[in-house]
Structure formats: C-alpha cells, structure tokens
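User: Hey, quick favor. My workstation is busy. Could you predict this chain's structure for me?
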Amino acid sequence: MMTGAVLVVLACAAAAFVLAPLWRPGGLPAWEAERERLLAARDAAYRALREVELDRETGKLGDADYAALRARYRAEAAAVLRRLDALALSGASVRGRGQSDAPGLRAEDHPTPQQAAPEQRPDGASARVERRI
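Assistant: No problem, here it is.
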C-alpha cells in the first residue's frame, strides 16, 4: 500500500515537472513578439518579391503589373526593415542601461543583398538558384 502511494506521488511530481512550461503565464516579452512578427512580415515580403520576379520571367505578368507589384512589395519590405531597425535602436538604448534581456537583432535577422534579391545574369535576366532537398 505504501509503495503505491509513493508511485502516485512520484508520477504526479513528474507530470507537474513536464507540464510546468505550459502553465507559465506570458510567453514571449512584447518586444520579442514584435520582433518575431516583423521578421515573419519581412520574409513574406521577400517571398512575394521572388514570386513576382518568377511570374514575370515565366510570362504570367506583364511589365506594368510587374512594376506595380514590385513597387508595392518593395515598399512593404522597406517599411518592415525600418521598424526592425527602430526596434534594434530602442534595444540598444535599453542595453546601455544594463538590461540583459533587452531587444536586439542578430546578424542573421537581416539578409545579405544576395539573399534579399535574386542574382542578375549578364543578360539582365534574374538567375534563380534553388536548393532541392
């Protein structure tokens, strides 16, 4: 009888330990949630730019439609990058005051120019390089 009670207590303790992260309130700090949202928006704008470029190359989009869509998605990407930079600057001022969990951006948060825009071939067309898994 005593062994059964000890096993039940151990099982409850193990379950509480495993499920404790689910019961914690809050989740991500507000700045980190905003950063994640902005990074997702940046990636979506870059994807849209690549798709518009591909649609133009395959003849699905005319020059006028391509120019309008490209301008729209570039403006969206620029706005998101400005907000990411502002978030990084506000994080730098907070870090200067000594907070260790201050917002900031890592180097991998901003793509290199080669990642942000498709490569251009000598003939002016875009060279798409895709990795297949």
